[in-house]
Structure to design on (258 residues):
């Protein structure tokens, strides 16, 4: 993938702009700066390598050269009043593009995509504020394409894999996967406020009916069986007494119960 193959693949889409980098610190940082300078809606920053790729809470996101699809999408204006559904919109778009390759992706709420129960893609949504208002959103997506994108096991808190490993053969080209993700994203963005979106997102949830633990910053983990989603995209668990427990967005991590 390079700038010209990327431009060619995405030419059918009505994007706001495209910036390509052979190597960059973080595509989200570049996109946040570009959004502040007035980037148009649906502008994209993509890179072949990230040297400072970020997950949530400044955790590292591993993106060695030539291994992954790493890009950030700028949304302006953001999608009020459905801001909290944006991570689901992104997750669903990645899941649909994996399904196009004959795979069975699942969404580990809120921000990871699993194949065979292993993390294959992650999402980081960040906002640009203007006073009290969100001026634009940056949605970073990191997708493990080749085996070389998978970090060493000792730095992982959750098992990881790549499309190449799961397919057992050469994966589709990165620009084709990106086209699939963006096409799905544009489709679902128009339906962001609908029940249909929540339903499709819910259908793709990992660990449905299974016991999980959700950990937040320092608090006692919340346990329960994955039941579904609330209309704002919050996760609904069922506790031991079959009562609903709602887990709001935030820097929470979901794990299967030990
Ligand atoms: P989680 O949702 O699992 O709590 P984040 O979304 O914050 O985690 O992602 C960061 C974490 O993902 C890192 O701490 C690291 O363990 C893991 N990680 C980093 N790079 C990759 C990658 N390319 N593939 C899969 N997992 C990764």
């Amino acid at each position: 993938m390079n700038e010209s193959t990327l431009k060619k693949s995405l030419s059918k889409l009505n994007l706001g702009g495209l910036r390509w980098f052979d190597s960059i610190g973080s595509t989200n940082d570049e996109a946040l700066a570009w959004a502040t300078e007035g980037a148009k809606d649906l502008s994209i920053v993509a890179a072949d390598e990230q040297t400072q790729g970020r997950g949530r809470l400044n955790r590292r996101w591993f993106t060695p050269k030539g291994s992954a699809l790493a890009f950030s999408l700028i949304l302006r204006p953001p999608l009020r009043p459905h801001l909290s559904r944006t991570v689901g919109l992104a997750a669903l778009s990645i899941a649909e593009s994996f399904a196009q390759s004959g795979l069975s992706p699942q969404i580990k709420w809120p921000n990871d995509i699993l194949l065979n129960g292993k993390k294959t893609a992650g999402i980081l949504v960040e906002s640009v504020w203007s006073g009290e208002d969100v001026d634009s959103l940056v949605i970073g997506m990191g997708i493990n394409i080749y085996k070389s994108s998978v970090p060493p096991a000792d730095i992982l808190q959750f098992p990881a894999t790549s499309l190449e490993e799961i397919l057992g053969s050469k994966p589709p080209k990165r620009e084709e996967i990106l086209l699939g993700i963006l096409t799905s994203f544009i489709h679902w963005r128009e339906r962001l406020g609908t029940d249909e979106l929540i339903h499709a997102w819910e259908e793709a949830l990992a660990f449905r009916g299974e016991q999980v633990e959700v950990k937040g910053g320092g608090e006692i983990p919340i346990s329960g069986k994955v039941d579904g989603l609330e209309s704002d995209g919050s996760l609904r668990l069922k506790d031991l007494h079959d009562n609903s427990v709602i887990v709001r967005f935030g820097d929470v991590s979901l794990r299967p119960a030990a």
User: Anything to note?
Assistant: The longest strand covers residues 118-130.
